[in-house]
Amino acid sequence: MSAKRLTGTPSAMAAATVSSAEGPDYPWVASEVLRTYADDGARGAMADLRAFIARCPTVASPGRDAGSYRFAVVPGPRVGDESMRVDSSTTSGSIRLEWDSILVRIGTTLVIVHEQGNEPGGDDHLTRLAEAALRSYQTTGP
Questions:
Q1: Under a CB-based contact definition with an 8 Å cutoff, are residues 103 and 46 in contact?
Q2: Burial level of 125, CB count in 10 A (0-12/13-18/19+)?
Q3: Distances in Å between the alpha carbon of 106 and those of 43, 67, 78, 83, 113?
Q4: Which residues, given as ranges, of the chain have pLDDT below 70?
């Protein structure tokens, strides 16, 4: 979901990050990224990401620890012109890190909300964050 990996070159980008360390075991970080395209790049980026996950749901880590990355498109909120939720995880030895993202396309813009480091199963803020980001975008525009 990084700018380097999605199809097309955005004509504008902005990002914001918020974090919380409620406890030493489960620090939490959320970020929001806006990517606006001059053409149909937002639709292409969504299609490319779906195709990539379908083709490569598991990718080996480049390290020597036999770790891997796993990606899945899962049910999520239906917002904007098009949306998808991606659940991701990585393993390295006995360590597992999970992160979740919701991508919302509104015309030629992608609103991407991402959270990581949440307590396992504790991604209940993600949908509310995505809905708030969408409302903010619709109110203020790109």
A1: yes
A2: middle
A3: 9, 36, 12, 9, 14
A4: 1-28, 64, 117-124, 141-142
Report the distance separating Cα 22 and Cα 69, nearest Å.
26
Q: Contact at 8 Å (CB) between 138 and 104?
A: no
Both tokens assigned to 15: 């990002």
DSSP 58-108: EEE-SSSS--EEEEEEE-----SSEEEEEEEEEEETTEEEEEEEEEEEETT
Q: What value does the CA radius of gyration of the chain take, rounded to a whole number of Å?
A: 15
CB atoms within 10 A of CB 101: 22
Structure tokens at 29: 């970080």
Query: For the whole prediction, is pTM greater than 0.90?
Result: no
The span from the CA of 1 to the CA of 50, in Å, is 11
Of 139, 140, 138, 64, the closest CA to residue 104 belongs to 138
Joined together, the tokens standing for residue 20 give 């919380």
Distance CA 21, CA 119 (A): 11
